[in-house]
Amino acid sequence: MAKRTGKKEEKKRSRIGEVRCLNCFERFRVPPKAEKFTCPNCSWEWRISWVNPKLAKIRGPMWDRMRF
Amino acid sequence: MALNRQIAYINLSTGEIETKPIPLEVRKKFIGGRGLDMYLLYNHTEAGIDALGPDNVALISAGLLSGTLSSASARTHVAAKSPLTGAVGSTNMGGFFAPELTWAGFHHLMLKGEAEEPVCVWVNDGKIEIRDASHLWGLSTRETQNALKEELGEEVQVLCIGPAGENLVRYANVMNGMKNAGGRTGMGAVLGSKNVKAIAARGTMDIEIRYPEEALEYDYEVMKHISGTKFAQIMGKYGTMFIQSVTNTTGLVRTRNFQHNQLLDAEPIECEHIEEYSFGTVGCFGCIIHCRHRYIVDDIYDEGPEYTAQGAFGWEVGCNNFETILRGNHLVNHYGMDILETGSMMAWAMELYEKGILTDKDTGGLKLEWGNDETVLELIRQIAFREGIGDVLAEGPLRAADKIGKDSLKYNIHVKGMSNLHSDERPTPALALGIATGTRGSDHLRSRPAIDLYHLPVFLLEKVYNNPVKYEGKFTSDYRDYEGKAWEVLWQEMMYMAIDLVGVCKYHCVFLSPNLMNFDHISKFLYYNTGLEMSPRDVWEVAERCYNIERLFNIREGFGRKDDTLVDRYFDEPTTRGLEIVRGKTIDREKFKEMIDEYYALHGWDENGTPTQETLERLGLDKEPSHML
To answer: Residue B579 sits in a domain of what CATH number?
Structure first.
């Protein structure tokens, strides 16, 4: 198998913890093990869960904000 | 080899059994699985027959790649005229039955007529026997399978019905294993009407793979790619329940029937909670994803639950209790009933109760209140055994509305008489078009462009949706738009049909991820495993032919443009909850009409949705029914 290039490795690393904001659709990176994170683009706050140490997903919203 | 698997015609009234090879010319036109089932259904039934009478036929089939070196080729297809809708009856399920049927020498079984007493059809290495099954009548789906394994051998695979199918609940399902269910359109009721409790299969007949080394190598390459996707990793951990993290969070689910589009404070039913009850995940034959959990809750041991159970016994009925989802999932599996239709009918009944259209007098005192866990579980039982209000709800949307009267039908969320998934498509025109035009009724598994929800860049949409046939219009990334969506729906129809022809799981194709199998992959899998040389475009054309056969069946039954629509609530009641981007949304009637017009034109259908003569000739369908088989 061909050795992975440095550029590809860097690209792969950069996707770790990356999720897409459900409100503004921008991608953002969540710090490892974080359970909450605020989208830097639209300021919407999300609860986060980890499928594995590299793969984060949005778990749900902060429910208080869903009441209007 | 796979191409030498046969078809068996089993006359339950006379006991006659005839087997035939499937000619290559038929394979090239319809490939197998769902597509060939639809050809057979169209050719072996007459318009207007009683779906629960002896003139209906029940087809049980494996896809052409079933049991080969193509991974996840586990899907069984069951078809008949639907007793729920009167349209195409068609359901597709995972598990282990289809490969076993293939190894037993058959790809398609056609059950005709009706047995006088309960029977089991036993398919064993090229032989077929109709056996007495009186002792199995009344057993649950799991009890039935265990009893047959004891009688016929542990290796036997069983497809069966439960009490709901025996009681002709119009959305009774067929089951294989604990959780693999062919749920939609009431195929369990069709088997029940024929007194067929089960079909058992056992086979040891080799399938000769045309190019085994290349087939293995290609399968390894594709599976390695799939297992590396985010989708597969998330799916392997939570199953389809992970979808809720997006849909309920955004506001794309229907709650309390259709009154809201989000269940608030839904943390207790989020998919992460499965880990408290699960002791591992399992998969279907040949699958690397393993998308379902085995769980225990008190004295219940089962598999799942899926996203549909989460909706049916969670947000649709206003329950916020994970254990109710686990228990409800178990009961519908046990009784053999479609989760989705069951949840929808209950949610509808609860809204009718809230509005005073149903009263305690109608329900025998059962309080059909939102979020009442005990009511939900009791109502499942009443539907399966047709007791009390359950007897009415067992009839499905249209017949139940007729019995209840008043203006009950206007609150039911259905298309062509089949309930919708617990999703709310008001903010998503593409998904709304998909359910409106589905051949088997409101349907998220036959045309849904789910990746439309991901806000993918246009260049990626073009890459996915212009292969193998190019769309001349424009795509948009915004799921709230109407532009380009008619083509997305049509493309997904062809994709899902193609994957159903070969019997591979939809979760391996472009459905929930744009990075999975498409027509190119199917073309190669077919060649390496069977030697059939079909380009991606050829596969597309077969899918188009088969989709048109489904459409022709429905037209023969009186369906047309008037039925390709949504209930008024989609157009008149704005969404009330969710993220700001989906609040206050309805489907725009005029734009929806334009989408339908474009969708028909892209298909080569006239303004009523009937395939034109030119389209029929192009697809070689102008002489149907042709009775080639």
So the answer is: 1.10.599.10
CB contacts, 8 Å: A49 with chain B: 272
| A58·B250 Cβ contact <8 A | no
pLDDT attached to residue B212: 96
User: By the CB < 8 Å criterion, does B217 face chain A?
Assistant: no
Task: At B270, list the tokens.
Answer: 């989020």
If asked whether residues B237 and B381 sit together in one domain, one would say yes
Residue A22 has its nearest CB partner, among B242, B246, B264, at B246
Distance CA B468, CA B326 (A): 42
Contact, B426 vs B587, CB < 8 A? yes
CATH number for position B248:
1.10.569.10
A32: buried, middle or exposed (CB in 10 Å: 19+, 13-18, 0-12)?
A: exposed
In sequence order, the 6+-apart residues with CB closer than 8 A to the CB of B55 are: B45, B46, B49
Residues B77 and B130 placed together within one structural domain of the fold: yes
How far apart (Å, rounded) are the C-alpha atoms in residues B341 and B183? 9
Q: Strand, coil or helix: what is B284?
A: coil
Q: Which of A37, A57, A58 to substitute to test the interface with B, most B CBs within 10 Å?
A: A57
Which residues 388-417 in chain B show a CB within 8 A of chain A? Answer: none
Q: Which residues of A touch B266 (CB under 8 A)?
A: 60, 63
In this predicted structure, the answer to whether residue A9 has a pLDDT above a threshold of 80 is no
- Per the structure, the count of domains in chain B is 3
Distance from CA of B265 to the nearest CA of A (A): 6
Res. B266: pLDDT tops 90: yes
CA–CA separation, B512 and A68 (whole Å): 31
Residue with tokens 């498509």: B425
Determine how many CB atoms are found less than 10 A away from the CB of residue B231: 18
Q: Which two tokens stand for residue B394?
A: 């067992």
Q: What angle do CA B529, B532, B534 make, to 5 degrees?
A: 120
The answer to whether B234 faces chain A, any CB pair under 8 Å, is: yes
Residues of chain A with C-beta less than 8 angstroms from the C-beta of B477: 25
Pick from A66, A67, A68 the residue to mutate for testing the B interface (most B CBs within 10 Å). A66
On whether both B442 and B577 belong to a single domain, the answer is yes
Its domain, for residue B310, covers: 228-414
pLDDT of residue A64: 87
pLDDT, tens digit, for every residue of A11-57? Answer: 665 677 899 999 999 999 999 999 999 999 999 999 999 999 999 99
In a domain, B155, yes or no: yes
Residue A65: pLDDT band with limits 50, 70, 90: confident
Q: Which residues pair with B102 in a beta bridge?
A: none
This prediction's pTM: 0.97
The answer to whether position B627 is within a domain reads: no
Name the pLDDT band for A2 (thresholds 50, 70, 90).
very low
- Cα B198 to the center of its chain, rounded Å: 20
Give me the mean pLDDT over the B217-228 stretch: 95
**CB-CB under 8 Å, B272 with A49:** yes
Across the interface, do A59 and B245 touch by the CB < 8 Å criterion?
yes
Residues 9-68 of A with CB under 8 A from B: 20, 22-23, 25, 44, 49, 51-52, 55, 57-61, 63, 66-67
CB B146 within 8 A of CB B176: no
- Per-residue pLDDT of B99-112, as tens digits, reads 999 999 999 999 99
Same domain, residue pair B387 and B495: no
Same domain, B373 and B251: yes
Whose structure tokens read 């007791």? B387
Q: Which residue has the tokens 């073309």?
A: B523
Find, among B245, B247, B252, B243, the residue nearest to B576 by Cα: B252
Q: What is the per-residue burial (b if ≥16 Cβ within 10 Å, else e) of B369-397?
A: ebbbbebbbbbbebbbbbebbbbbbbbbb
For residue A4, is pLDDT > 60? no
